[in-house]
Amino acid sequence: MSTILEIADLKALAKRRVPKLFFDYADSGSYTESTYRANESDFSRIKLRQRVLVDMSGRSLETTMIGEKVSMPVALAPTGLTGMQHADGEMLAAQAAEEFGVPFTLSTMSICSIEDVVSVTKKPFWFQLYVMRDRDFVMNLIDRAKAAKCSALVLTADLQILGQRHKDLRNGLSAPPKLTPKHLYQMATRPRWCWNMLQTSRRTFRNIHGHAKGVTDLASLNAWTTEQFDPQLSWKDVEWIRERWGGKLIIKGILDAEDATLAAQTGADAIVVSNHGGRQLDGAHSSISMLPRIVDAVGDKIEIHLDGGIRSGQDVLKAVALGAKGTFIGRPFLYGLGAMGKPGVTKALEIIRKEMDTTMALCGKRRIEDIDRRILAENPY
Ligand SMILES: Cc1cc2nc3c(=O)[nH]c(=O)nc-3n(C[C@H](O)[C@H](O)[C@H](O)COP(=O)(O)O)c2cc1C
């Protein structure tokens, strides 16, 4: 634990502890992965302004996201198959987030169900919605999130069709994994993962299994998920989803100022500037590079969050400086989970908090609310 100093350390440990097909599922982008790489590398092009001899005592990272108090402006992003990085992964990550005081977002494509997560948490979490062709299923899913007292619905707008991830096809990814010799070998060389997985019965998509018509076994579940993402989903649908839900709504997957304007017109409470972690449109710009023009377009109309490529507290501060009220992390918490379960998720959050706190001080600021573009350095050349 003491040698884990940065998110990259958690990634290296997760690689050793999680079977290859699931580690690769997290560590991949679509096609050439150029957008996946740009999400991370574009952060390092932004430079911070060093300020000195200012009182840096009494610092606080507390703020709000959609009106909810958070201990720092970082939420856990919705990620599918999280319960395959570590047994009961969604339940463990939700608990870690709750204890840390940051929001946890449960994916529609999670292993643990909404009800599973409710059973181990005390505070409301957020629920991410994929809209399926089977509208009865979607309505029921929204009602289940309501019954669970989820405090926000995160509608993902950038995955009506799947960007191809070569690694997943090469690895033959499925949940639960198929028992081919290759997969058995990958699991046998990860005994800790296997042991934990044998202690749980949660090994398939539990938000879907038993809730969607005709999904009674694994074969029908696989067929259902591949054909169910609705290619006809449009801005018009946001209205009925919003009505049915009736609570706070966040639209995730906005990368263009025109789409941001349309999203603001829906009356949603926030948008997430996101390219799905580089897993959808390969060749799209990084999230952080698109943030300034989206803030200029709708910053006074709707709350703006950002995800994609955040690997440090410095990255969070840069996003906040450019106008994000909050951020989401996907892979950093997945690596923590794969490396060490719940303490690993806590560790990922601690790393980011410590980096953010120190960096804020070295920029001459004491409160996250004081962070704006003035902490960024101009290109000196
Ligand atoms: C393994 C994995 C699974 C994901 N599954 C979902 C999902 O089910 N729903 C969703 O809206 N986004 C999903 N995403 C995208 C994340 O919510 C988020 O946009 C992305 O991970 C942010 O980039 P980062 O991983 O660089 O932090 C997934 C991302 C990863 C890495």
Automatic annotation (TrEMBL):
Gene3D superfamilies, alphabetized: Aldolase class I
Cited InterPro entries: Aldolase_TIM, Alpha-hydoxy_acid_DH_FMN, FMN-dep_DH, FMN_HAD, FMN_hydac_DH_AS
PROSITE patterns recorded: FMN_HYDROXY_ACID_DH_1 (PS00557), FMN_HYDROXY_ACID_DH_2 (PS51349)
Entry keyword Transmembrane helix: no
Catalytic-site annotation from UniProt: H276 (proton acceptor)
Domain (FMN hydroxy acid dehydrogenase) ranges: 1-381
Any one Pfam family match given in the protein's UniProt record, by short name: FMN_dh
Cofactor names: FMN
SUPFAM superfamilies: FMN-linked oxidoreductases
Residues the entry annotates as binding FMN: 78-80, 107, 128, 130, 156, 252, 274, 307-311, 330-331
GO CC term (a single one): plasma membrane
Positions annotated to bind glyoxylate: Y25, R165, H276, R279
Source domain of life: Bacteria
Keyword list, A-Z: Flavoprotein, FMN, Oxidoreductase
GO BP, sorted A to Z: aerobic respiration
Keyword Heme: no
GO molecular function: FMN binding; L-lactate dehydrogenase (NAD+) activity
Family classification: Belongs to the FMN-dependent alpha-hydroxy acid dehydrogenase family.
Protein name: Alpha-hydroxy-acid oxidizing protein
Species this chain originates from: Rhizobium daejeonense
